[in-house]
Structure formats: structure tokens, C-alpha cells
Amino acid sequence: MMTTQKLKALVNTVIKQSTLDSSQITDPTQKFSLIAGGELEINSYQSAANNHWQLTLTTPVNGVTKWFAYKPHLEILTTALDKIKTINAEFPNIGVYHRSNDQDRESAGSGRGIFPSGNEPDHRSETTYLPFVMATRRQTDMMARQAYLLLPESIRKETAFLISDRLIQSPEEYIPYIEQKKQVVLIGSFMGLKQEITSLGDYQNSNSDNQLLRAFHNMELRQLEYSIDLVKSLNKPIIDIVFAIGDSPSKYADEFRSEIMEKRLHQLLGSRGLAHLKRPLTWGADDTTLRAFARQLPNLKLKVITANSQAKHHYDGYRTTEEIVKYITQELGITIVNDDNWDAQVFIFDRHPQASYHFGDNFNDTNQKALDQKIANQLKALPTNQQSKTIIIDGRNPNGAFNSLCIPPSDKFLAFGGWGTFGNVCAQTLAMAKILHFTDKPNKLAIQRQLLLEAVAHDVFIIGYEAAQSSNSPLRKRLAEIGGRYLHKECKDQRYKDDKEVQKTYQQINRFVNEQMSKLIPEMGSTQLVVVPQLWRTFESQVFVNGGELSVAGVYHQDLPSATFNPFQAVKNVKKFGLDELLQEF
Fold first, then answer.
1. Which residues does the chain have with pLDDT short of 50?
2. Domains (ranges, CATH) in the chain?
3. Is residue 217 a contact partner of residue 262, using CB atoms and an 8 Å limit?
4. How many CB atoms lie within 10 A of CB 539?
5. Do the Cβ atoms of 144 and 291 come closer than 8 Å?
6. How many CB atoms lie within 10 A of CB 197?
7. Apex CA 42: angle with CA 38 and CA 44, to 5°?
8. Model pTM?
């Protein structure tokens, strides 16, 4: 690996073949002049005698690359990589160069996470993640790998996809990947606003939480700035910037998104000669990798059927379904059509305006049930030739399907999603559907079926509200019978004791998921799903169709019982696709 640096002459000077005074060198081939302001590209430099630098030039002069220059006459220009190395000093508590980022720290802070905490030994299966893996959970790890491998070979050969957090975390590891490619797409997100922030004044408040939030926003912009500079130093064009702002239950969030963070983002792009890449900043975060992939594909025509287009979404700045779908489809290169000339159609389950629940356990609300049943009946009535072009999104509650009414009535549907905020689930499900629509894999239908079943199992039965999360869910009851617990998110006071409790818990989860799937999707047949704990909580489970066509392992613990924690042992036909495989792909 080699990156170029530059030196700049502060005054007229002479570059020489020795540390002698230039007046003592009479052979003109042994020296050359560099006027004040002139620059030279170098591969390396080190101190030499007589207050000189020894230089290795990028381009030989007189057939020679090793030269000397008088230190006071020169300035070694700071490289993009040098700048990255300063980020921890600029942001002492949150800088990510060779450190964990906030997603990694979240993992480590809740029980025994994937990322090592403190002085723990590092037992991760991958110590440097793929550059487009945001975090160790299904949607941002295993699913991102599957989506990447579905892209046409021409895109994968030419385009590097990089999350700015990851690039700043391990730039030396990712530079060879960038150097292989013709062009680059940069990906990232800004931390969202908490509910308590209701104005710009609140955001600028000096309390410690808001100081930390502002520091994150400043660092996220700095990470993008340094990522741009590093890519440019490698002489690769940046063809797209895909950024979003994360979960924001604040009613001020939409104004903050457009008037503060979007303007700061656009100012940075303009300062780096990338004004042509300016677009509205959207809601989301976990979906940004899939969104970046989908944007490289041709346009898709989409018909949209919503249960309630005016439903407002808590974590998306209280924007409506109609508004969010409109800007997400624009972002993804999808055109909404109202006639029958469509490539795909999406049915969206949404909240009834008079429904009595928000995030609670009320699954018997009459208004909501009637609205849900209407969409479910439309799905059941679809002709078979439309099912493989139909997408289902459950937007009723964040981070889990509300109940099983949203399940596709067959295994032939194009895509399903019920995980994340509405911006997340909408973007990642439509992006995966677009990727599947355009994939050139010969076993496309088998892969489509696999991804559909994995999504339903995860979103409805592992983290769904009625099936799993609710206080009286059938999964909780099943676990209680064996003295087990369902811990959707661990915290200091609630965590699995040890790997034995996790094993026992996941044995029951696997039985429950397969029973429910077989009961509600008749075409399941002998297909079995395997749930593998990626972290020590169900929120981050990996889900595989056993023996599936496109099963790709995410990060896992190598120090825990392999029959439960190691997907290569727990599941048939699992592929490894990490950074080494990415670098050796072509």
C-alpha cells in the first residue's frame, strides 16, 4: 500500500543528490531547481544529515527517485491520511481512528457485545468489517452482504462503497479496496434528535447530553470531509454521497434536518467541489448502504398502495407516510406511477388515525384491525403472476412488525420489511426489492424466496410486537415455561447470564419461529430457518434459511459454543464474504 504526499517550496531551492550545499554540486544531473510555491509528489520522506530531508519521489527525475532537500526551504504538506489520524485528538472521547464507533460502543455496552470492551480479548470473527457494514445486526451486516453480492458484476468491479465511519476507523485497511476501483460512493448518517430537543435553543444548550450530540454532528461532518480528501488523494472520482439523519422523535427534528444539517452537509460538498452531488438530507441510517447500492441501478416504476397515507411517524420528524415514501423513492431512483404500467407494487400497512395504540400492546383495536384486514384481503386476492412483483412493508410500529396480518400469503412475494423506523424500513425494503428486480443471478427466484422468508421470520416472529416483544407474547410464554427470558434489548439490570442461557433461549426461539412460519406460510414445506445470536440479545439475531442459496455470515463470537453462535457450524451452506474476499473478488 502506498499513498502519495506532497512537499512545497517556501523559497527558491535546489533538490540534490546529496546533503552538500548546492553550490558545491557541479554536475547538473545531480540537482534541479524548485521555485517558491512549487510542489513535488513524494512517496516517503525521512530526516537526513545537515538538516535535510531524504525524499523518495513519486516520479523519477533524471532516472532517480532518491533525493535530498534542505528542511527550512520546504513544507511537507499534510496528507489526507495524516488528517484522519488527528480525529481522536479533535474529538477525544468519540474519535474513531483505530477505535470503536458509536454503533460498536452500543454493542459493547449492553451485556457481552461483539466489539471488545475495555481490556477484553478480541474474539470477533472479523476484526475489520466490510467497508459497507454499519453495525453487527441483520439489516446492517448479513443483509448488506447479501445485497452487495446481488449487484451486477459490472457495478461491483468498478465501484467502491464506503461508510465514512468505517473508512476513518481503518483507512489503511480500506485503501487497497479503493485503489482497485474506478469510482467511489460514500455513505453515512448523522445522529438524530431526542424528543426533549424542541428548538435550536435546546440543541445549543450547554448541558452535557447536547454538548455530546453537537460533538457527534461535528465529527460526522469531519469524517465525511476527511473521507472525501482521502478518496481524492487516491485520484478516484466520487460519484455519489448517500447520507441520512437517524431516529428523531423530536417535533423540531424536521426543521433541524433541513435548516441545519442539510445546509452544513451541502456547504461541505460545495467546498470540496462536489456541489453536483447535493440532494435533500433524508431520514434513515441503517438503510443507507442498501440505498447506496440501489441508486446505482436503473430506474424502477412502482405502484404504491397505503393503508393510511397521512399516518405520521414518530421517529421520522412526524412526517407522513406519503411524504416519506415520496422522498425515499426519489432517493432510490424509483418512479411512482398510478396506472398499471409498473415494474413492482408495494402494499404498506399503516396506523389508523383513530387507533388507540402507539407503541403499546393493544392488538384488538377495532379501527386498526379493520384497516389491517382491508390490506391483507387485497394481498390474498392478488393473482399469482403479480405476487413475485409485490412488496409488503409494515409501517405500523418501529423496530418490528405489529402482528402477523402483514405476512405475505405465499412465498412468491418480492420483498418484505417490518424492522426499523418507517424511513429505515421503507428505504431498505424498497432498495432490496429493486436490487432483486435487477439482479442477474441465475437462481434469482430461489434467492428472492430465501430473503423473503428470512425477513418475515426476523421482523414478525423474532422481534415482532404481538409475537415476541409484547408483555404477553406467545414467545415470552414459551420461554417462561423453561425459565427463560426474552431480552429484546439488554441493559445493566437485564442481561443474559452466560452462553448457556443464550443457547437455551435460542433453541426455543428456533422452534417457535419454524412452527409459526409453517403454520402461516403453507409453501414452507421442509424449509427450516435457523436463528443465530449475533450479540447477546434478540435485537441482533442473524436469520438463515438452512441450506439457502445466498447465506452469508455476519460477524460472530469465535469464543462461544459453535453449535449456537458460529453460523458456519449452525447452518448449512453458509458463505464467508469479508474484507479478504472483497479484495480478492476480481
1. 1-2, 110-111
2. 5-77 (2.30.30), 80-109+153-296 (no CATH), 298-438 (3.40.50), 473-578 (no CATH)
3. no
4. 20
5. no
6. 23
7. 140
8. 0.88
